[in-house]
Amino acid sequence: xDSVDTGEEEEAATEEMADDNNDDIMExxxxxxxxxxxxIIHDAENxxxxxxxxxxxxxxxxxxxxxxxEYVCDDDIKxxxxxxxxxKMLPRGYRPDAxxxxxxxEDSKALLFWRDEENDKCFSDWKIKVEAHKSDDGKDxxxxxxxxxxxxxxxxxALGPKxxxxxxxxxxxxxxxxNSDCVSTVKLPEKVxxxxxxxxxxxxxxxxxxxxxxxFENWESMKYLADYFLVPRLTEAVAEFIEExxxxxxxxxxxxxxxxxxxxxxxxxxxxxxxxQAVRVCAQMFLSIEIDSPxxxxxxxxxxxxxxxxxxxxxxxxTLLHTCSLLAAYLERNVEDRVVFDFCCDVSxxxxxxxxxxxxxxxxxxxxxxxxxxxxxxLNGPFEYADLCHRNIELVFINLAHIxxxxxxxxxPSIEMMEKIVRDAPNDVVAKxxxxxxxxxxxxxxxxxx
Length: 450
Prior knowledge:
Blueprint: H1 2-22, H2 37-49, H3 65-68, H4 106-110, H5 119-122, E1 126-133, E2 147-152, H6 154-158, H7 165-172, H8 178-181, E3 183-189, H9 190-194, H10 196-204, H11 219-228, H12 232-247, H13 252-262, H14 269-284, H15 294-298, H16 301-310, H17 317-333, H18 338-348, H19 361-376, H20 388-410, H21 415-424, H22 427-449
Parallel strand pairs: 1-3
Antiparallel strand pairs: 1-2
Helix pairs in contact: 11-12, 12-14, 13-14, 14-16, 16-18, 17-18, 17-19, 18-20, 19-20, 19-21, 20-22
């Protein structure tokens, strides 16, 4: 009786340890373990100006801006092509010709012995009972109805290059009560439990084709299972799948998910591996990022700054207009963030950036967005600040006023557009534009009289 109790205690301890190590991997909501980029960047920037602003414990290490940008300039990266400087933007809507190959051959499918429901034909010598639970409330709500039993083979799960360290240790140990029953019971989050068959397919398939089991729908669960069952080769396979999806197929539809998952902890090895590539591809595909896309809003400020700094500008009006529109849209969602606002103003004084066609309605729409954002920040000029940050804001304001005046001089806007200008542009800018237009009309009349 004591041996049974001991076995139950060890089993419970093992499962509890595995759950503790993995319970934060599949969390969809933000947790205290996730990085608060906005706060960290605020603190980092303020530290450069006035370290007295910090009220922190003496033993707490304050991250610098360089620390935050490590994922885009990792010292471990040796490839010179992996630079985020002077990135040439690919045409809008660019799609590579290559298509992913992710289907197992018939030979590999024939090796998936565990899928044979008739146990006497597949010669199973072990069973895995997977109990699914909902991890949102943290309660153990597993039931027999939510459990699934898989007939497996010891050689497939505990031997070979893709072996599970978890099952290897389990099968080599004599202290587990499970050994006498030939059953292992594991408790997994419901989302992960649904992908457990794919995990078994990976273990059983031929090594050269096992990576084909991984896809966008299951990669996160496969990463979880690789960590839970100690399968380092699967962890590497997941990283390779994401790298290929990002770098070879430029898949912006998937980028939002990758960024939202990996930016939570930039110290994680896979995060430090994936995020630099995400930065590079986002810069290359910048013209294909839509203004209202979830991807744009999922990019954390430090990453957005890295992308903008890495872009190579040209004189193409469509490129400049799209860039200015994305910059304004991103700033509109982060207008209360001083670091983001200052950086966007800094980028916006690039000589080429506001060289827009002043006759286009799309140009004045971008300008009006900037006016609204400055009004939210209570920055309507004139400016009397000495620091560089507000000097840049003043230059942006001058550019906006110049474009507004030139737009009104170059054409007669529609009534709707004129209402927008009067509503959003500062009064002195509108007054100046009207005065210039009247002066020009008067000179035109006078020259006609002569």
